[in-house]
Design goal:
The protein is 45% helix and 22% strand. By secondary structure, the chain is α+β, with helices and mostly antiparallel strands. Strands 2, 3, 4, 5, 6 and 7 form a 6-stranded antiparallel beta sheet that branches. Strands 1-8 form a two-stranded antiparallel sheet.
């Protein structure tokens, strides 16, 4: 009986020591991670200061713009669907994801720096204009949107209902490039209530 208690007690001691080592290891990893983040932040700050002090064109060395550009690039490098939003862009995004808005009625995403139609929403101006999955929107109202961010493109496409937007579209499947003038409408997005 005493031996069994001794073995159980020793097992609990070993388990406790293992947990203690695990916690210390995890804390160590956390400290290491924090120091890596701190080191990266310090390096980023040093580069910003050098650019601001020595770059030949001061107007291009605006700290806010440099910071935003760096954050956008960092987040976008994770995957094609990740994007950094400024406060203004975030508010625009919230409007875009509301239940209804003025637009052309297509689901879009950035693919290889091109605004690409994922799918036209049924019974919307985009579908009626003949936009298809895979179509690339090149220009909006004469403005080249190649390499623009998704949020910037959304701001150009969005507008008051019953206003026109002129698009230049490239269709990779056929190689043709064509133009469409589409009248924006209030787009109703039905929430999915039941999936079977």
């Amino acid at each position: 009986m005493f031996k069994r208690l001794l073995i159980v007690g020793f097992g609990a001691f070993v388990l406790g020591q293992a947990l203690l080592v695990s916690i210390q290891f995890a804390q160590g990893r956390g400290l290491f991670f924090r120091s890596e983040v701190d080191r990266s932040a310090e390096e980023f700050e040093q580069v910003l200061r050098i650019i601001q002090r020595y770059y030949v064109t001061p107007e291009k060395a605006d700290v806010d713009q440099l910071r935003t550009t760096a954050l956008e690039s960092m987040v976008h490098s994770l995957d094609p669907h990740s994007e950094y939003l400024t406060e203004e862009e975030f508010h625009s995004f919230q409007e875009d994801t509301a239940q209804e808005f003025g637009g052309i009625g297509v689901q879009i995403e950035m693919r290889d720096d091109r605004l690409t139609v994922v799918a036209p929403i049924p019974d919307t101006p985009g579908e009626r204009a003949g936009l298809l999955r895979g179509d690339q929107i090149i220009k909006v109202d004469g403005e080249d949107i190649t390499r623009r961010s998704l949020s910037e493109c959304l701001q150009l496409l969005r507008g008051k209902p019953d206003t026109e937007v002129h698009l230049v579209i490239h269709r990779p499947d056929t190689g043709e490039t064509f133009e469409r003038t589409i009248v924006r409408k209030v787009i109703h997005l039905d929430s999915v209530r039941d999936v079977r």
